[in-house]
Amino acid sequence: MKKLQKKYFLKVLLLMALGSVSTTSGANEYDQRQVLSLNKAQQTYVLTEMRSLLKGIETIVSALVADDLEKVTRHARPLGMAMKETPENKLHGILPKAFMMQGKAIHMAFDSIADDAERIKDPKHTLKQISETLQKCQGCHDNYRIKVSDASTSKNKPRTGNDSEQIKRKK
Ligand code: HEC
């Protein structure tokens, strides 16, 4: 029994060790999301766009609460296909195709929100579009996570793979 416990213990240790070194190659036991291996600048780029998306959604929802469909259009449009600073544009060839397509779908969704708020002017309809857009956000978040793979940032790799903490510590 004791021997068995020891064997089990060693196995767990081994798994933990593997988890901490193999995270760049893919999902691990704790986190099944596909890994996007980016350097720090690329990660910052993606996350900055993400925060504008969240900010945009928030502004659009508050405009909707005020029944201000003009404002909805005004804030949805810049997040549409006209948005230049997107990972799809800047990280073309680095991000997987499926990821790029989901990114593009998000920008098309914002264009539809802008178009329909202008033409249909039905808050309920806009709300439904926002809900569908949020499902798209969620769909991508369920599937991907970023792992900073830059050689300069791979030192002191925290076991949890929490890269934002890693970046903070580096500063
Ligand atoms: C094409 C894929 C994709 C889509 C679509 C997407 N995201 Fe993200 N988002 C990501 C990834 C990848 C991360 C980083 C997750 C990680 O590394 O754990 C992220 C992170 C974020 C973050 C955290 C930013 C930070 O500074 O840490 C926010 C906020 C966010 N997304 C908001 C949104 C919103 C709102 C939408 C929809 C309007 C959206 N995202 C759509 C892929 C996507």
Describe the overall structure.
- The protein has 171 residues and is mainly alpha-helical.
- The protein has a single domain, classed as Four Helix Bundle (Hemerythrin (Met), subunit A), CATH 1.20.120.
- It has helices at residues 2-21, 40-65, 69-76, 87-90, 97-119, 123-143, 163-170; strands at residues 34-38, 144-148.
- A two-stranded parallel sheet has the order 1-2.
- Helix 2 runs antiparallel to helix 3 (69-76) and helix 3 packs antiparallel against helix 5.
- It is elongated, with a radius of gyration of 21 Å.
- The site of heme C has 19 residues, from helix 2, helix 5, helix 6 and strand 2.
Short key terms for the protein model shown above:
two-stranded parallel sheet; 171 residues; Four Helix Bundle (Hemerythrin (Met), subunit A); 6% strand; single chain; binds heme C; mainly alpha
Structural class: mainly alpha
What would the CATH topology be? Four Helix Bundle (Hemerythrin (Met), subunit A)
CATH architecture: Up-down Bundle
Order of helices and strands: HEHHHHHEH
User: What portion of residues belong to β-strands?
Assistant: 5-15%
Question: Which percent bin holds the helix content?
Answer: 55-70%
Query: What small-molecule ligands were found?
Result: heme C
The largest β sheet comes out as:
2 strands, parallel
Shape: elongated
Indicate how many domains the architecture comprises: 1
Instruction: Calculate Rg over CA atoms.
Output: 21 Å
Roughly what is the average pLDDT, rounded to an integer? Answer: 82
